[in-house]
Each structure stands twice: as C-alpha cells, then as structure tokens.
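During the reporting period the student researcher (J.K.) took over the structure-prediction task from the postdoctoral fellow and processed the backlog of single-chain submissions. One of the processed entries is reproduced below for the supervisory committee.
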Amino acid sequence: MAIKTLKDLKAIKLPKPSAPLPYFITMHGRTFTFRDLKHVLGAADISKAGDRKAGLAATDEIMREAARAVLSGLTLQHFFDHPLTNNQGQIDSVMWVNYDIDHATFATIAHLTFGELKDDLLKSTGAHIRQIGAALTGVMVAALTKLLDVHELVLLAKKLKTGASAKARTVVGLPGTLSSRLQPNHPTDNLSGMTMLLYTGLSMGSGDAILGLNPAIDNVANISATLHHLDKIRRETGAPTQICVLSHIKTQLACLKEGAPVEIMFQSLAGTERTLTDEFDVTVELLDHAYETMQTSSPLVGIAENFMYFETGQGSELTYNKHEGMDMATTEALCYGLARRYSPFMVNNVTGFIGPETHLDNHEMIYSCLQDHFMGKLMGLAMGMAPCYTLHSQVTIEGQQMATELLTAAGANFFMDVYLGTDRMLAYFDTSGHDDQTLRETYNLRPAPEFLAWAISRGIFIEDADGNVQRGANWGNPKIFCTAEGKFQEGEFQRLQESVPAIYGFENAGARPSNRVARLMKANQAIGREAIYADLRPAEIGDIALRELHTAANNKSEHLNDPTLGAILADSVLKTLKAEYNDVQIVISDGLSAEAIHHNIPNLLPVLLDGLNSRKLNIGQPILAPFGRVKLAESIGDALAAQLIVTLIGERPGGDALASCSMSAYFAYRLNDKVTQKAAADFSGNAEIHYEYSVLSNIYSGGLPSIEAGSVIAEKVFEILQYKAAGNRLENLMQHHLIPH
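J.K. obtained the following structure tokens:
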C-alpha cells in the first residue's frame, strides 16, 4: 500500500492576505451592509445560539436571504483570493492546510459563482461532485452549504456515499451499509464494566467501525491497560474490527512507543489554530508526526489503508472564544480541510455535545448535523455522525432521532452505539445499538461485510436465500460471549452486569428496548434534566467556612446560555481582591449540577484539606462561586496570585438519578515564572500558554466515592506542585521521572 506523503506547508500555494472588504446589497427596498466575508458567511446560515452570541447571525430572514444572495454572486476565485485571517490578519496553520487543494480542477471551476456551483452539483453524479470537493477549501465548502436546503443537503450527501469508504480490518462506508462505533465508556474505566458494554454492543451487531473508548483517566499506564483489554476482547470474541482509546494524541504516541496496540490514532480537531493549540494542545506538526508514525508502527500496517480517527463538531472554537470572527459552520468545515490532509479511517461529528451555548434546540442541532455531514463528505471524508445532546440544552431524544433518520437517508457511514443512549462517563446522550439496528431495518442496510459474516456465524444475524439480513436468535443477547468450555457462566455474567451503572435491563422488543427498559431510562433522564435547574444551597455543603465570590452570570439562564459569564468574576468582586500568593486555592462551584456539590463536598472537602495541611502547604480560604465554569480558575488565580487552583465543580447530569450528582476536580496550574512557562510553551507549541490543566472526573457514589476522591485530589496536588506541571506535560515528566529543579 502506498503511503501518502504529506505536503510541506511551505509548498502549499497561498494568496496574500488583504484588508477585509465590505459587501453591499439592496433587497426589497432595504440596503444591507456586511462588514467582511466572515459576516456574510455568518449571516447566511440559519440562526444558531453560538453565532447569535458571536454577533454573526442575521437579525431576520430578509437579512439572511440578502447574505445568501451575496454569496450566490461571488466566485470561487474571489474566495480563494481573500482568505479568512485570524485576529492578527494572518493565515493560521489550519487555514493554511485548507489551501492544499486540487489546483488543476480548481482552475476549471474558479470562474463559477457559488450559485452556479450549486446548480452544477445538483445536476451531477457522485464522481463529479467528489472531484469538485477535492478542489475546494473548507471556507468554500461552508459558503456552498449555506445555500442548500434540507432536501439538497440530503440529496448531495447521498450521491457521495459511494467512493468515500475507508479500510482497516473492516471497510466502512460501502453502499448499502451502516456501521457503528461501539463506545463502552465507564465512569471509572472499570475493565469489567467495559467488557459488559462490549459484549452487549457486539451482540447487537455493533462495533464494525471500531471499538472506541473515551477514558476517564488519561495517562500512559491506564491507556495502555485499556488498549490491551480492548484487544483481548476483540481477539476472544473473534470480531473483525479495530480498537482505539480516545486519549490525547501525545498519550497514544507514548503508549505506541511502549508496545501497546494503538491500531487507530485519535485526536479531536478544531478549525482555528488558537483553539487547536491553546485548548487541545495539538499542532499541525504534531498531527503530521502522529500520521507518519502510524504509517510505519501501527499494528495494522499491511492490513489497513487508513490509520487516523478525528472527532469534530460545531462550536468548540466559539466556546473557547477563539473562533477568529468566523461562524460555527465555517470553522467546522476548516476542521474537515485539516482532517483531509491525513486520509482518516473515521471522522465522527458530535455536534450537540457542547450544549445550549452553541445549539439551543432540536432545530439548530438537526440542521447543523446535516450541514456537517454534507461538508465532510464533499471534502472526501468517511463521515460518521453522532447527533447528541446534553440535559442542559433544549435538545431532546425525539430531535436526536429525527436527525438520525435524515442522516441515514443522506448516507451517513456510521453512528455510535452507547448502550441505551446514555454515556456513563461523558454524561451526554448519543445513539444506541437499538437505534443503529432500527435504522438498518428501516433503510435496508447492513454492517460492514467482514463483520456481518462474523455476526452471522455467531447467530446474531441470519441471511435468507434471497440475501436478506435479519436479526438472529442471539441478537441482543450478551450472554453468548460469557461462556467457558461452551457453557454459560451465570456468576461471571452477574459480576459484569453489576459493574455497570444505569444498565436498566436487556429485554428487547424487536430492534427496540422493551417498554419497561425505555420507561426506566427516560424517567432517570428526566430526573437528571431537573437537576440542571437546582439552586446551590450553601447550608448543605458542610461546616467548613467558605468565602462567597460571584461570577459575571447573574442568574441560571445567563449561566447556562453564555459560559463566558461563568468563567470570570464580576467586576465588583475583582475590585475587592488582592494577591495572596498561596500554594493552593480551592474553588467550589455548582457548574451544571448543584446537587453534585451537595452530594460530594461535605465528605470530600475535610479529607482534601487534611491531606493538603499534612504537607504544610499555604492554602487560601476555600471559595464558593455560584454559576461558575471551569475557566473561572484563571480569573481567580490571576486575582489572588495562587500557584494552583483546584476547582470542584458539578458536571452536567448523566443518564440516571445517581449520575446527576457527578462532580469533577479541575487543576489549573498557573505558569508564573519564566522557566516553567518556557517549558510549558516548548512542550505545547503554544508560546502564550498561561495555565496547564489536569482533571479528575466522575466523583460520586457511582464512580469515585467522595471520601476517596479527597485523598486522590490531594495526591494530584502534590504531584503538580512537585513537578511544576499539569496535564500532558505532567504525565510526560512523571513517566520519565524528570523532576524540575
């Protein structure tokens, strides 16, 4: 198999940035002025929460159609000649990569307006559309997409279903197939819990795309152990698929170096360099290195043709306020232009994962997913979709199901299988194995051929004489994998089942969960959604004296819909603070679940303080900050000049009543001396880095118990202060026992 050679960035043909141009149009007696291309692109899209917050959305339908009229009349060459720059007027590395296009094809279409391009594609076959897609930058693709209605987004994407497959042990994206990523996430990375969820998903015919787990703990030891475990399950069941643990790319590279089976390399992507580097700790150079390493070192060398897996989703750039003035769909398209560089095996879109600050309701989420799927397919990617939601948004399970129906009609390559739709670690809601099978039966689709043959051999599916695939006797029965010497092991199955929270039961009604199971699942989800709106009750937090500081969010509504307000202290509060220079400052905030604070802090805080005091550290009086977000640590840390800020914060409620009490501890290490800051900058590639972060999640009685968590948090504090580092740099230093002096 030929290895694709990455083009050096300096060899990519770039136009010279120029001053932004205003655009004018008169429509029905009204004159509209758009300050630049970014404004035109934002106003041309449907109204979405994130774009409204950024001041990019049109104020009414007439303005939106005016922006679309402007786009319709602009040529592709105009967009090529006027690249969207960052706030400093420069072409950043993500935009730079997007200009690596098929210039020969572009020369034949550069004269077309976007209106003409739209009409041409609608009259074309998939092969022609794919050829055109290879000649477009992400910004051009976003501009075209804003001219398409729902039927057109579905129709054009469906034409692109052929020819967008990717190969590892299975081939994903073939016509007539619908694959799934089996996601056995567990709040404490419990291997038995993972096993139960893997058995359950495999028994539903899920996992032909990949067995992919999001870890709760991202360090080399845990990720290596998890990779080996997934590989063990894959081998024991005989399922022809591939494995991936979705940790940070630096952790995976370290695991691969130590011999762990890193078959597919994962990383989340962003559409601006500042988000990619500052928030995700990734550079294009690092992605290049990972790609080239996998081409020679993956266990699938000689088997696979594609080795990378990326996740994206509209809104991350805006959430971090690093969108460089671009709307969410445009930065998402830029992600696809970056992903295209590496010919990935999978790209999974998780629009809806962030919350109401980006997508408020079902309409915004569904339309954005259709945009994302089309844009990715047009740019040649093997797109999977994860239309998902969190309980603090107004997106619902019904909206999610509508999205999956439309996306299946549009030819999505795969969906997720999160058991009963409830992610037990990430506390959000995704598609399930039941959903995947329902969609297969509705649209007459089947798993990848290699995986289907295996599933038929296990009685999970049957194929009749006419080639029709149906559920077999073992579909949805995880007990078929819990055997020894051909006999079912009741005790082992019970042990595995007890290791998974929010399991609810295994009874099915055809391709759907039984009514009893569905009622339990949805009732618990309703309780979790209610927890979002609970108020913080200081009297229930314990007897330790706290000082209360208020954020810029004045109420629950502002807090939920604009995360930037919860990330800073109110101006009136900041004026009262002065530097205290403590080693550790503890901050307690309700975040997205006040109940998590009531549930955990009374037991956790005394243990944590005792542990910290045993090391004779200088500790500031703990702070209570209602309506806070994780980044509030920086506002407080800078004001008080604390070395390390430990934020104990309620996470978004998960899928059962107990998980609505889940809390996390975020460690924000302030880089306040030149030597440490330079070391962090060199490691991350971000010259402006000011804080490093570590996190300990899923603190509650169903995950890491609060008393135990107090000790674990204290130990992490000691490590961070000893090594003068947090996050990936801390893990790297600890792995090599490199203690700074």
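The committee noted the following: Residues 594-613 form the longest helix (20 residues).
J.K. will present the remaining backlog at the next meeting.
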